[in-house]
Backbone:
């Protein structure tokens, strides 16, 4: 009976592959195809095909020019795909750099693609990474319709996904707690009125970012609720929202247009920018209009461009940082736990702090450098 079960369930091809792996005594040992064939007691052609397959799946490594193989250390077996949002954006470049560094220090094979904020390219990158035989995908993209297509592709391929900053159905999430980040920005801006009568603040501007979907909605909701809770004399009518933008120029133009549309006199204006570039653009518009002393601007992100701008102590007075330079040291270990079959939370949030020129040195003791 036992012999019948072994014949029925025993997979000879899998056993041969394991024999090839077990032919390496240590991870450091280097063997030729012929040496592996002798140890595993298989033909040369079988050893070559099995080694080729194991190499493609990351279990063995071929040494260039030496015609020798070695067994890949346990962590190196995993091939992780990472699709960046757009590495021309400074915040994203910091996130990407931190992920690459964390992967190297943990001997993870990281295959990187850049989505360039382009929906067709994002989907093409997913297909390309799947063809590379990845075991897990780290996806950083903003399009909610594309997110559903990515979820379907990965589900069918049995590849788990970690979504960075923008959620994907059925995936793990690492990134900002957007409602909390909005509340922190709104509370800081409300506190700017404490230097005088709260009724001196009579206008608030919100500069939304384009293409951020529900992530943006949560962030804006946090800002608006903080405004209305801390400055109860204000009404919804006193909060103006600009058309969505993305760049510093968009923030500059939107701020000028909104301020020119306000006909009643104002003593203080608070501006909540949903990204740092929009906030920096708004600050330049405020300087051009000559009302720096009447304005307080808070951004979102805490990337290196924002940190450099904070040190100049203009109307751009704070940013809610997401600590983009630390993403890798949390995302890569999370990925390894998922691949090891450990139970992990579906949602992991980065830390948030309101950075100002006053407390900047506590979190970033040295001046930021360009990525």
Residues:
């Amino acid at each position: 009976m036992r012999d019948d079960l072994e014949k029925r369930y025993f997979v000879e091809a899998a056993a041969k592959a394991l024999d090839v792996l077990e032919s390496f005594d240590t991870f450091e040992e280097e063997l030729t195809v012929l040496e592996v064939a002798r140890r595993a007691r298989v033909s040369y052609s079988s050893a070559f095909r099995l080694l080729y397959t194991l190499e493609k799946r990351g279990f063995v490594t071929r040494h260039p020019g030496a015609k020798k193989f070695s067994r890949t250390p346990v962590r190196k077996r995993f091939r992780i795909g990472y699709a960046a949002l757009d590495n021309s954006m400074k915040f994203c470049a910091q996130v990407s750099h931190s992920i690459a560094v964390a992967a190297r220090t943990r001997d993870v094979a990281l295959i990187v693609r850049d989505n360039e904020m382009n929906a067709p390219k994002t989907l093409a990158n997913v297909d390309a990474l799947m063809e590379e035989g990845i075991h897990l995908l780290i996806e950083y993209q903003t399009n909610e319709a594309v997110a559903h297509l990515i979820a379907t592709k990965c589900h069918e391929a049995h590849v788990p996904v970690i979504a960075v900053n923008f959620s994907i159905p059925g995936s793990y999430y690492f990134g900002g707690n957007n409602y909390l980040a909005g509340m922190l920005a709104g509370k800081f801006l409300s506190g700017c009125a404490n230097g005088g009568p709260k009724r001196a603040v009579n206008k608030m501007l919100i500069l939304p970012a384009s293409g951020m979907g529900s992530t943006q909605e949560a962030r804006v909701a946090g800002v608006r609720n903080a405004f209305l809770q801390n400055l109860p004399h204000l009404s919804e009518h006193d909060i103006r929202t600009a058309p969505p933008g993305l760049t510093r120029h968009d923030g500059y133009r939107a701020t000028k247009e909104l301020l020119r549309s306000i006909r009643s006199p104002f003593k203080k204006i608070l501006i909540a920018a949903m990204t740092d570039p929009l906030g920096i653009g708004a600050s330049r518009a405020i300087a051009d209009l000559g009302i720096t002393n009447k304005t307080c601007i808070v951004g979102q992100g805490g990337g290196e461009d924002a940190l450099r701008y904070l040190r100049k102590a203009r109307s751009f007075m704070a940013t809610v940082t997401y600590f983009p330079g630390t993403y890798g040291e949390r995302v890569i270990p999370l990925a390894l736990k998922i691949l090891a079959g450990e139970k992990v939370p579906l949602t992991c949030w980065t830390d948030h702090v309101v950075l100002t020129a006053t407390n900047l040195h506590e979190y970033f003791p040295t001046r930021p450098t360009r990525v």
Summary: DSSP finds 14 helices and 14 strands in the chain.
